[in-house]
Every structure is written in structure tokens, then in C-alpha cells.
Specification:
By secondary structure, this protein is α+β, with helices and mostly antiparallel strands. The protein is built from 8 helices and 25 strands. β2 and β3 form a beta hairpin. α6 crosses α7. It is globular and about 75 Å long.
């Protein structure tokens, strides 16, 4: 007989994020999912019931299951990303409940960056609003393969089919124009529980899956072991002990792909080559290792390798460049301007850089490009060209979400300015602008 633990370990894992405008009901949906799927412990439910009664509510406010910060409970909004882990008999889930307020769009970028599915909520009374379009654009930029449109509060529009149909058509058309590969629209009432876990008796005109049913059955393909093999070096191990006088290992977490004993590899950005003579995993020597294992590679040749270098198969090396063209989501309060000096963090490597150009900013209403805006402000999405002090080995974000992404950081105080996705995106239709070489580089030595 198969044990419960064995059954759980055999189920697949889905990482998903919720997003939507303020008061669209994201936290209530998450609470309803947890409650109706029986993923809430008794003491948790009792605590929520007590908190709800103290606020004068007759029934438990399920949103409190995720809104854990005091400021969140007092204001009735989500501020930080709340991660929840739960499981059903069919699948395990890691859920990121992200804020809806425009001020916290940066948190949605964080929550969706590793998600395989995004649930975008829309208030049936308000329809698709600017923040809905912004979240759809972020999901498209982050290459989230599956998007669910949850049209919430259907109980407040008398469960009208035409209201749902109009919203679904508008959102689907918009998201499809962004290149979102799969969109599923579901009418729900998170407060009443309609079509969240159990089918709704109030919407017999809807014949699709409930939210949980879709989450349990959507195809999940995240076999990173078959992707381009990449190992960002995090630490060089030199014990220099009597037992290991000549040991030189390069440790890190495999970002993607598989490494094998005897394989020829190239170290970037230097371009030096060698062969793998050993792979240490959890103190044991192995012949093969794959993502996301943390390993130590030993090479046949002594090469100058340090933190931030990238070890890749010699026949599958990404190009190195000092001119990074990317789409960025600006997440800081201070603007990002042409000529600004920044730090660019890619995997374990951080280098000095200058913003050479901002060719365009995306207009969310009609997806047009506003050419040469000069700067990006909080929550803007735009194209940038960054010149780095040292060569970087970046994959296209379309090929690898791990090694095609980077952060732009303020060198003065370490504030994250923008999250970048290298290579092509839906924003590649931006008007071409001639690169300016008039930026003052003094003080940055490149």
C-alpha cells in the first residue's frame, strides 16, 4: 500500500501567483482556496475567526489567512508578497499572493518571476482597468506560460453571463496581443465560494473548470534539466588541508541544464576551456548533476575562476557582451535616467554599468511605444540599453528565465531600481532610435 508521503512526493509542483487591482479580492480568493481545499489548520481558522469578530464581522474573513502584516489587516490591503504552501491529492502548490495597489507593482514582479501560472483577478463591476493591463503586461514579460482571468464578485452583478463574456473578451484580446500563450477565463465569487473549489449553482451557463480544478490539471513543464547548462560560480573552495592539499572546487547552484563527468566546459567571460574531472554533491562524488542541485565542479586544468564566472558546456556557450539590450520593469521610487550610473547584478556577478539609452516606454492602454522618454518612473515598463564595465554572458530571457534576467541597482544605497529581461520581448516593436555616444563616462573606467 502506498503511503501518504509517497503519494505526495509523486505529485507535481505548480508555482503560481495572484495579481489584480486593489479590492479585487485576491486575498479572499486565496483564503477560499485554502479553506475549501481543507488546507487550513484548526488553530489558523480559529485565529482568523477571532480577528474577524473583533472587527465586527459575523463570518471569518478568509483574506486574513494571507494578509499577515498588521498594516495589511488594518488597511484591508495586501502590501507584501505572501507565500503559501498547500497540496491536494493531485498536486502540490507554492502560491504567491501579490499586492494590487499600483505602489506595490514591484512586489508582483517578485512573486511572478518564478511562477508557471498567474491568476489575474478582475472585479466584475469595474472590468479591465489600467492595473489589470499592467499585471497582464508583467506576466507576459516574465514569460509566465499560463494566465487565468478570474472575474470575481459575480454575485454583485447577479451572476450575469454577458458581464463575464464582455470582460473575458476584452482581457483575452489584450493578453493575446502581448503574446501570452494560454488564457483561461473563469467567473467566480471568492466570498461566496462560487467556482473556486466547487462548481457554482448560480452560473449554470458556465461549463468550464473551477479555479482549483484548473490549477490541478494545467500542464506543467519545468524540466530545466534539458535546458542550456549553466553554473554561476558562487564560491571557490580551497581547503588546503593535509587531506586535500590541492583541492580546487567551484561551487554553486546549477541554474539550468545538466553537467556530466568528462564534459568539456568553457568559463565565461574569460573563454578558457577545460574538462570536468569531478562533481561533488552533498559530500559524494557523482557522475552527473542537474538543476537545481548545488554542486562543486572540479576541472582538469587550473584556471583563474572566481565568484561571478559562468561555467557552461563548450558547445553551448552564450555570447558575451558589454551592451545589454533589455526590457525592464522599473520598481524604484526614484526615476531611471539616461546616463545614470548603476550596478548590474546577473546571477552571482555584479558589475558597474551606465544606462546609455532608453529607446521607448510602453503605453499600457494601447501597447504603443512612447519613443525616447528620457527616463522611467515607478512601475514603468520600457526598453533600455546598458553599457557594462565588464563583459557579461547573458542568455535571452525567452531561452532562460534564470540566466536571462538581471537587476539594476543604485550603487549609492543598494536599492533595486529595475528588473530586466534580456533579449526580445513583446516590446520589440519600439521605434528604433540611434544610439548616443555622448554619455559622460568619467569615473567609471570603461
Amino acid at each position: 500500500m502506498t503511503s501518504a508521503a509517497e503519494q505526495l512526493s509523486a505529485t507535481t509542483l505548480l508555482r503560481f501567483a495572484t495579481a489584480g487591482s486593489v479590492d479585487d479580492g485576491k486575498s479572499t480568493l486565496v483564503g477560499r482556496l485554502l479553506h475549501d481545499s481543507k488546507s487550513v489548520l484548526t488553530d489558523q481558522l480559529e485565529a482568523v475567526t477571532t480577528a474577524s469578530l473583533s472587527r465586527g464581522q459575523d463570518t471569518p474573513d478568509l483574506a486574513l489567512l494571507t494578509d499577515g502584516l498588521r498594516a495589511e489587516r488594518e488597511q484591508g490591503i495586501t502590501i507584501d508578497v505572501a507565500y503559501r504552501y498547500f497540496a491536494t491529492a493531485r498536486r502540490r502548490f507554492i502560491l504567491a499572493d501579490t499586492p494590487g495597489h499600483v505602489q506595490y507593482t514591484r512586489n508582483m514582479v517578485t512573486g511572478a518571476s518564478t511562477a508557471e501560472l498567474a491568476v489575474v483577478l478582475v472585479d466584475a463591476r469595474n472590468g479591465v482597468v489600467e492595473q489589470t493591463r499592467r499585471h497582464a503586461a508583467v506576466a507576459a514579460l516574465l514569460r509566465v506560460p499560463h494566465v487565468v482571468l478570474a472575474v470575481n464578485k459575480m454575485d454583485l452583478v447577479d451572476y450575469a453571463e454577458h458581464v463575464f463574456a464582455a470582460i473575458a473578451e476584452e482581457f483575452t484580446s489584450y493578453a493575446a496581443s502581448l503574446g501570452v500563450p494560454e488564457i483561461t477565463a473563469i467567473p467566480i465569487s471568492a466570498l461566496a465560494g462560487d467556482n473556486v473549489v466547487d462548481p457554482s449553482a448560480n452560473m449554470d451557463w458556465y461549463g468550464g473548470p473551477t479555479v482549483l480544478e484548473h490549477l490541478e490539471t494545467v500542464p506543467v513543464s519545468h524540466d530545466l534539466a534539458s535546458c542550456h547548462a549553466r553554473l554561476p560560480v558562487q564560491y571557490v573552495i580551497r581547503p588546503q588541508t593535509a587531506d586535500h592539499p590541492d583541492y580546487r572546487g567551484y561551487a554553486g547552484q546549477i541554474a539550468a541544464g545538466t553537467f556530466r563527468l568528462g564534459e568539456e566546459v568553457t568559463v565565461l567571460p574569460s573563454g578558457r576551456t577545460s574538462r570536468i574531472k569531478g562533481i561533488d554533491l552533498l559530500g559524494q562524488a557523482v557522475d552527473i548533476a542537474w538543476t537545481p542541485q548545488s554542486v562543486t565542479l572540479l576541472l582538469e586544468d587550473d584556471i583563474d575562476i572566481s565568484r561571478g564566472d559562468l561555467i557552461v558546456p563548450s558547445g553551448d556557450a552564450p555570447p558575451t557582451t558589454q551592451d545589454v539590450e533589455a526590457t525592464v520593469c522599473h520598481v524604484a521610487d526614484q526615476p531611471l535616467t539616461v546616463g545614470q550610473r548603476v550596478l548590474l547584478k546577473h546571477t552571482t556577478r555584479t558589475v558597474k554599468a551606465i544606462v546609455k539609452e532608453i529607446p521607448s516606454r510602453l503605453t499600457l492602454d494601447d501597447l504603443s511605444q512612447h519613443p525616447e522618454p528620457g527616463q522611467l518612473v515607478a512601475n514603468d515598463i520600457g526598453l533600455v540599453t546598458v553599457r557594462t564595465a565588464e563583459p557579461l554572458a547573458l542568455d535571452s530571457y525567452a531561452d532562460s528565465r534564470r540566466t536571462g534576467s538581471f537587476l539594476l541597482i543604485d550603487p549609492a544605497d543598494g536599492t533595486t531600481l529595475a528588473a530586466g529581461m534580456a533579449g526580445d520581448s513583446f516590446a520589440t516593436t519600439a521605434k528604433a532610435v540611434q544610439t548616443s555616444d555622448s554619455i559622460e563616462d568619467s569615473g567609471w573606467d570603461f
